[in-house]
Specification:
four-stranded mixed beta sheet; binds pyridoxal-5'-phosphate; globular
Length: 388
């Protein structure tokens, strides 16, 4: 039978303890309900706690009243799918980032699998951090460029690769996340900018998926915090995480935007985001600077969790943010601990290879600004009791 191949592959995954299934979850604010059990969501990307803010939702609907934006764009933006809200939002993005241009995409995945193949040809070398997101890897694979990877955040290794190869290519694109999704650590963006100046033919591609909204004085990400927005050629971010919506953007020079409009296949050949969705993202993004108190609270929670967890780990605590891995190393112990924490009312998920390197299985904790310090302290107590 033609389907034997599929069932055998699934059986193998099951045997290896790697079978993935879609969980049945209900949501109730910051809590998750599964099989009748209510758990505090410790695995959400809703870093600012905007997703469950009923007041914001109400204000948005009030703003439009009977004239709600369209629920579909019915077409690619290059045909009939362009609505004024797109341009308005792109102008707002460009203005906030103080850059020439911005361009919206359907998702971060679309952005990352679309931009790299459009801008990188055979004369391009892409050098990516070892831990970049799967969507970036897929974008690299779809491109015609040669590619290399440097050890995670190892600037010495990257310098060696640049020195060795920069004369053999017309351009080199360095690809990194700003805040890494599994370790919660930060890329050395200032050193990357320095490489640009040192080598001349280097472009920077930075994915701020986990940092936009929650990092930076006005929420514009790690590049804002480090004062290097102007030096990043492709500054990408997504709206599905701290911005409580969906979609993505690149902030760049006008010539890059014009080029992408002509060459980027996921932009050209996919129905644009619904205007309703873009209006909602625009509504939240407009208010981003005013969410400073949420960012501060999130930072306090993060410090609390990191400082208490670090002494409980046998390996160093990598996190510098609200994404805090509790690294156990062993697969089975990680799975058992996640299950125990769930029974205790905390929705914690085990992350194991191949998602993370072998021997670094962990519980990936992510904090949101709608958690309280008391809730977090209770969680830490629960974790401490279990591992002692
Ligand atoms: C989540 C994520 C994406 C994908 O963004 P979507 O909008 O969910 O498709 C891309 N890059 C990184 C680093 C991410 O964490």
């Amino acid at each position: 039978m033609a389907y034997n191949f599929f069932s055998q592959a699934l059986a193998q995954l099951k045997q290896d303890g790697q079978l993935r299934q879609l969980p049945r979850l209900e949501h109730s604010g910051k809590w998750i309900v599964r099989d009748g059990k209510t758990m505090l969501n410790m695995s959400s990307n809703d870093y600012l706690g905007l997703a469950n803010d009923a007041q914001l939702c109400e204000q948005f609907l009030q703003k439009y009243q009977q004239n709600l934006p369209h629920f579909t764009s019915s077409s690619s933006r290059l045909l009939t799918g362009s609505f004024p809200i797109y341009d308005e939002f792109e102008q707002l993005l460009a203005q906030r980032f103080q850059r020439q241009a911005a361009l919206l995409f359907n998702s971060g995945y679309h952005a990352n699998i679309g931009i790299l193949p459009a801008v990188a040809d055979k004369k391009t070398l892409i050098i990516a951090d070892k831990l970049v997101h799967a969507s970036l890897i897929d974008g690299i694979r779809l491109s015609e460029a040669k590619y290399l990877r440097y050890r995670h955040n190892d600037m010495g290794h990257l310098a060696d690769l640049l020195t060795k190869h920069h004369q053999d290519f017309e351009r080199i694109i360095i690809v990194t996340e700003s805040l890494f999704s599994m370790d919660g650590d930060e890329a050395d963006l200032l050193q990357l900018v320095a490489f640009k100046q040192q080598f001349g033919n280097v472009l920077l591609y930075v994915d701020e998926a986990h940092a936009i909204g929650a990092c930076g004085k006005t929420g514009l990400g790690l590049a804002e915090e480090l004062g290097c927005i102007q030096h990043i050629d492709f500054l990408v971010g997504t709206f599905g995480k701290a911005l409580a919506s969906q979609g993505a953007y690149v902030v760049c020079d006008q010539v890059v935007r014009d080029y992408l409009v002509n060459k980027m296949r996921p932009l050209i050949f996919s129905t644009a985001l619904a205007p309703f969705n873009v209006a909602w993202t625009h509504f939240l993004f407009e208010q981003l600077p005013s969410f400073a108190a949420r960012r501060q609270h999130l930072n306090r929670l993060s410090e609390q969790l990191r400082s208490q967890l670090a002494p409980m780990m046998t390996s160093p605590m990598p996190s510098q943010s609200y994404i805090v891995p509790y690294i156990l190393g062993d697969n089975h112990r990680t799975l058992n601990l996640a299950q125990h924490l769930q029974r205790q009312g905390y929705y914690c998920l085990p992350i194991r290879p191949p998602t993370v390197p072998k021997g670094t299985s962990r519980i990936r904790l992510s904090l949101t600004a709608d958690m309280t310090e008391t809730e977090l302290a209770q969680f830490i107590d629960c974790l401490r009791k279990e591992i002692q």
